[in-house]
Specification:
single chain, 189 residues, alpha/beta, two-stranded antiparallel ribbon, 21% strand, Gp88, Gene product 88 domain-containing protein
C-alpha cells in the first residue's frame, strides 16, 4: 500500500493547482461512477468521500486544488483530518473556508493543543479529532470547550471497520456529517 501512496504523491508533486485539480476531479468522477455501479446493483451508497486515509495536505496549492474540486462537486459530502493548521508552518484552513459540503477536522492531541485552540479561534467552523490515552481522558481534556463530542465507535471497537454494510465511518456518520468533535483513544477504551 505504501507504493500506492508514494505513486500518488509523485503524480501530484510539482504540478500546479489546475493540474492537481484535474487529477483530483478525475478521482472524484471515478468515485461517482463506483457509487452509480453499486446503486445499479441495488445498494444505497451515500456520496461521502474522505480526503486522505493516510497523509495530509502538503502545500497550500494542493489544498486550494481540493477546494476547487469540492466546490465543483456539491453532490458529494467530503471530510478530512489535518494537522496543517499552524500559520508558522502550513495553514490550509483559509483555503478550505466556506465549503458547505466539507467538514474539516483538526487532528489534535495534547502536544498540539495550543496551536489547535488558536486555529479554532481563527476558524470556529473547524471540528476537532482529538487523540487522548482514553475516551475519558479526551472528554476531560475538552470539557471546558463548547460543542458536542463523540467517541469514535470504530476506534472504541463498537463498530467494525468494514462489513458488507460498508465502512464504519459511513455507518456511524458523525465525521462525514460534521455533527461535532470526535475523540479517539490510544487505549481504545
Amino acid at each position: 500500500m505504501l507504493d500506492v501512496l508514494t505513486t500518488n504523491m509523485q503524480a501530484l508533486a510539482g504540478l500546479d493547482r489546475a493540474a492537481m485539480g484535474a487529477l483530483l476531479a478525475n478521482m472524484i468522477d471515478g468515485f461517482r461512477a463506483d457509487c452509480d455501479r453499486a446503486e445499479r446493483r441495488g445498494s444505497t451508497v451515500p456520496r461521502h468521500f474522505r480526503i486522505h486515509w493516510d497523509g495530509d495536505f502538503f502545500s497550500l496549492e494542493y489544498a486550494e486544488a481540493w477546494a476547487d474540486v469540492i466546490r465543483a462537486s456539491p453532490d458529494v459530502r467530503f471530510w478530512v483530518y489535518t494537522r496543517s493548521f499552524d500559520p508558522s508552518a502550513l495553514d490550509v484552513l483559509p483555503a478550505l473556508t466556506d465549503l458547505p459540503n466539507l467538514t474539516v477536522y483538526l487532528s489534535v492531541d495534547p502536544d498540539n493543543l495550543p496551536a489547535a485552540m488558536e486555529a479554532r479561534r481563527r476558524h470556529p467552523w473547524a471540528r476537532w479529532a482529538y487523540l487522548a490515552e482514553t475516551f475519558a481522558d479526551g472528554r476531560a481534556d475538552l470539557a471546558a470547550l463548547p460543542g458536542k463530542r463523540y467517541p469514535c465507535p470504530e476506534n472504541g471497537r463498537r463498530l467494525p471497520l468494514i462489513t458488507e454494510k460498508g465502512s464504519a465511518c459511513i455507518r456511524c456518520g458523525i465525521c462525514p456529517s460534521g455533527r461535532g468533535d470526535v475523540v479517539f483513544a490510544i487505549a481504545k477504551k
